[in-house]
Amino acid sequence: MKHSNILKILFIAIMAMSIATSCGSKVTNSPGASAKKFTELFADGKIDKALEMVQGYKEASEEEQNKFKMFIAEAQKELEEKGGIKSVEILEERINEAGNEADVTLKTIYGNGEEEESEQKLVKTEEGEWLIAMEK
């Protein structure tokens, strides 16, 4: 086989693997990705989807779910005052030894240019999904 044919085949194989990996990867496969996704959903006004990423929300009573929604509505007002979110960056991701809890540090840049670092606690479900932990 010619050298150029080997390179072409290798290039096609690498591209195919890259496409398969990017299409098949789950957004919430890491605590950092989950924390970032939660923030982005919240910023985009996709409140129900964001709340599905909160530990215990699905099991909560209707009254408790309404409290969550009221809290989120207040936080969204503050977000609007800052001009929305321009970008979110994962600064640090620390997973405990058991692999079932994590602390994630995010850097958020708001539309008005203000920057903020925040810490988010997450827990891993039995299914392997990372959820936002709610302090009790």
Can you describe this structure?
The chain is an alpha+beta fold. The protein has a single domain, classed as Roll (Nuclear Transport Factor 2, Chain: A). The protein is 44% helix and 25% strand. The protein has a 4-stranded antiparallel beta sheet with strand order 1-2-3-4, with helices on one face. A hairpin with a 4-residue loop joins strand 2 and strand 3 (115-124). It is flat and about 40 Å long. The N and C termini lie far apart (65 Å). Residues 2-27 have low confidence and may be disordered.
Give the arrangement of secondary structure elements.
Blueprint: H1 3-24, H2 31-43, H3 47-51, H4 62-81, E1 85-95, E2 101-110, E3 115-124, E4 130-132
Antiparallel strand pairs: 1-2, 2-3, 3-4
Brief overview:
The N and C termini lie far apart (65 Å). With 136 residues, this protein is an alpha+beta fold.
Through-space gap between termini: 65 Å
Helix content: 40-55%
Mean pLDDT, as a whole number? Answer: 82
Strand/helix succession: HHHHEEEE
Number of domains: 1
Descriptive tags:
4-stranded antiparallel β-sheet; 4 helices; Nuclear Transport Factor 2, Chain: A; alpha+beta; flat; disordered N terminus; 25% strand; 44% helix; 136 residues
